[in-house]
Amino acid sequence: MEKNDQSNEMKRRDFLRAGAMVAASALFLPLSGTKVFGALSATQAKKSIPAVKLNNGLQMPMLGFGTNTLGGEVAERCVADAISVGYRLIDTAHIYGNEEAVGVGIKKSGITRKELFVTSKLWVDFAGYESTKKAYQTSLDKLGLEYLDLYIIHRPRGDVKGSWKAMEELYEAGKIRAIGVSNFDPDQLAELMKYAKIKPVINQIETHVFFQEHDSYKDLKKASVQMEAWSPFAAGRNNIFSNPTLAAIGKKHNKSIAQVCLRWHFQRGVVAIPRSTQKSHMTENLIIFDFELDKSDMETIATLDLNKTQFPEWT
Ligand SMILES: NC(=O)c1ccc[n+]([C@@H]2O[C@H](COP(=O)([O-])OP(=O)(O)OC[C@H]3O[C@@H](n4cnc5c(N)ncnc54)[C@H](OP(=O)(O)O)[C@@H]3O)[C@@H](O)[C@H]2O)c1
Questions:
Q1: What is the pTM of this model?
Q2: Which domains are seen in the chain, by residue range?
Q3: Could you tell me the CA-to-CA distances from 44 to 29, 82, 115, 138 in Å, in that order?
C-alpha cells in the first residue's frame, strides 16, 4: 500500500470508528413504557433510536429527519427542533435548495458534528466525474460542514459511472463516510454493481404502505444494500392519515397512524426519514420503539399495497 493510501485508509477507519461510537450511544434503551404522545425528553429519544450497520461497517440511525420542501427560516427552525427532540440523522439534497438553511439549523442546535449523521444528494445536472467532485464540495460549503456521513446519487440519470468513480475517490480519500444511490430500480443497481469498486451502502427509494416495493426489498437484502424509505408517509397522499385500516391497528396499540407506519418500516428493517414542521409530530414520530406490530398487523398492512408510486409526476 502506498503511503498516501495508508493515511487515507487510516482517515477512513477513524471516520468509521467515530461512527460506531455515536451509534453505540444511540443504541436501544427502551422507553419506560410510555404510550402518550408529546413529552419525550431529548435524552430518551436519542437513546431510543436503534442503529443499523451498513455494508462498510458504518452505523446509521434507523430513523431520521427529512427536509424536502422546507426552506429558509422554516428549515432552520425544523432542523434545530428535530435535533433538540432527538433526531440525529438529517436528510437533505442539493435540489431541495435548503443546504445552507439546514447547516444553520445544525449550528443553532448546538450539537457536536460527530453526533450527527448528515446525508446529501448529487443532483442529475452534476452527473459526471469532475462535476460530481465540484458538486460535493459545493454541498459541503453550503452546509458549512467538513464531511458528509452519506452522499448519494439522487437519480440514475446521465453519466452515473463517472459520478460513481468520483464518489469512490472521495470516499477513499476519507472525505465521505459512506456512498449510496437513490431511485435506482433493481436493473439500474445491477448495472452499477458491474463496475463499482465500492458497493453502495444504501438505496433511498419511495416506499410506504401503499408502495411496498417487494422486488427492490428482496433485491437489496440479497445485495446487502440498506433500503431507505423516502416519503415514508407517502407525503400524506391517498389520505394516509385517515386510513381506517391503519387507524384500527393504531387503536389496538394506542398509537397514531404515523407511528404505525414508522413502526412498520422499522420492523421491515427499512430506514425512514419522515418530515414534519411540527415539533409535536417530530416527537410523536420518535416514539415507535416501545411497541410491536404483530404478525396479523403486518399481514393486514401488506394488503394496503397498491404496488404503484404515489408520485407519478416524478417518474
Ligand atoms: N430521494 C428522493 O428522491 C426523495 C424524494 C422525496 C423525499 N425524499 C426525502 O424523504 C423525506 C420524507 O418524505 P416527504 O417529505 O416527501 O414526506 P413524508 O415524510 O412522507 O410526509 C410528510 C408529511 O407528513 C406530515 N406528518 C409528519 N408527521 C406527522 C404526524 N405524526 N401526524 C400527522 N402528519 C404528519 C407532515 O405534516 P406536518 O408538517 O404538519 O407534520 C407532512 O405533510 C423528504 O423530506 C426528503 O428528505 C427523498
A1: 0.89
A2: 3-306 (3.20.20.100)
A3: 8, 14, 15, 35
